[in-house]
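Exercise 3.2. Students should predict the tertiary structure of the chain below and write it as structure tokens, then compare their answer with the key that follows.

Predict this chain's 3D structure.
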Amino acid sequence: MNNTILTKYKGIKLAIGFALISGASSASAFMVDNSQQKVVVKNTVSTAPVVSQRVYVQASPVAVQSKPAAVPSTTVVVQSTPAPQLSQSQTVQVVSSTQPAVSSQNYSTQSNNYSTQYGSNASSGYASTFDRLAISTNSSAVAVYDLQSGQPIYEKNIDATRSIASISKVMTAMVVLDAELDMREELTLIPSDLVGFKQASTNLKAGDRLTRSEFVLLALMKSENPAAKILARTYPGGYDAFISAMNQKAQSLGMYQTSFSDSSGLNPRNVSSASDLVKMMKAVNSDPRYQSIRNFSTSPSYDFYITNFQSGDRTYKANNTNRLVRSGNYPIGVQKTGFIREAGYCVVMETNINNRPAIIVLLGGSNSNARWTDAENILTELAYRH
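Answer key:
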């Protein structure tokens, strides 16, 4: 490799090397234009200001500063702050319209005598009548959880244990971050990383070299299965130790209907329930250690410069697997899609509409359009609830 290519490669690696997730002393200049900068409002004039929070993500605890902005009368208001040009010595800054993280609350599960059309919203004992979502969903299992009130506002088969496909990669990222590994360390794919429980398409090759943080980004944004595999293989103790850590993490979060057999979700024995996945998403929402999961999973696209000494260097232009993130029309703070035949079409999301955060879990959609129709119907109802 000549000096010019080597210089370009090193520059990109430094840009992606996150001090915010590695605990390193120097912050990186990597920025993602995530859709937390957007707020959906009703079709009526709102007098309440929308608060956009500026979250400074560092090795130290997160500091939050509020910056009010007036809300015009429109269906969707996009508030964005231009990304500053950062040097290696500057703090990574993420503009967010989310509320401060709420504390975890017990999410009690009930017997599953749910109405096919309205889930458990027809029953009493949860949120107020005005908070419940009177919607019909096509997905096999659905949970919508209001983070502000700490109550479920729509439920359907929430305790049914199902395959969850690539939603598993959220837990994969959590375990990597919990281990406080060097996110700037360069990892190299080997042939076994490209062999999974099922045959799956990939744009990666044996010999590809990226940093650990870049592989986390590929796993969350593009759902690359070899990225999840190499993250597990390079974990202290190896692949089996990583899977054990995933299951231990699930147990520590009270996810007792959850079990992991691989790091990517290609194995249909990776199972969970909608109620358990709400607990996982609450943990991501409330813990500053997982800020990079929010950033990475909601990045619409990213160009990876991949070094490969055998097949040559190349640029891999990757797009987010979530079409709602790509469109930029919704305030999505963290998300992950998933699909294998046994799981159906799935998605988990945290959103913030009308300055009110909520978690959405959709499992077992019969097709991709059904999944996104359910998601958009729920987001619309959240915008008009009391």
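Discussion points: DSSP finds ten helices and 16 strands in the chain. The longest strand covers residues 344-353.
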